[in-house]
Amino acid sequence: MHIGGLSSIHNQAKKKCEDLMQQKQSIQNAFDRQSTQTKLEHRLRLKASIEVVTLLLNQGLAFRWHRKDESSLNKGKFLEILKWYAKRCDKICDLVLEKAPKNDKLTSHKIQKDIITACKLETIKAIIEDLNGDNFALLVDESCDISRKEQMAIVLCYVDRMGSMVVRFIGIVHVRDTGSLYLKEAIVNYLAQHSLSLSYVRGQCYDGASKYARGSKWP
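Structure for Zinc finger MYM-type protein 1-like, as requested:
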């Protein structure tokens, strides 16, 4: 039975529902049907991209260049290092960049950002585990990038299991308002995202975010 024409909103929704119910068309099944060799090659490409990203992050280097077309002699550090890596690693030399499938290169700007986000989450997780539920000091400073948007850099200072003082940057929070109450809410929410509570704060330091220090009190 058709309600409206074949191209009506109802029938389009019905068709999408039927397609969703057909498990043979699901992404998971499509991946499962791929050969073991195809999966291995995908993982090797992903591993290469992850290793280049972690190298750039550890060195604090920019990823992109203003040009990355075929005629460019410098396509940016990510692509240039990946190219260099491929020339020296037999496992991936025939699998990455121009030799990779067009839909599985794993070098796009989005892929790079996804890997960076994963690295960020793993790094913060390691810091929280090292903190081990202990007390900490909170350092907050105003931060600014090329976008000129208001943001705060949040840093934890604590003593680790070996008795050494550790200072760790855990993130940047974008803020719409620089009022003290809004800044406090932004800090509280960010800490809560990582299972941190203000009740464990034993010291506070605010530099560029001095508005917060002047206008707020800890509960």
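The chain has two domains: 9-107, 130-213.
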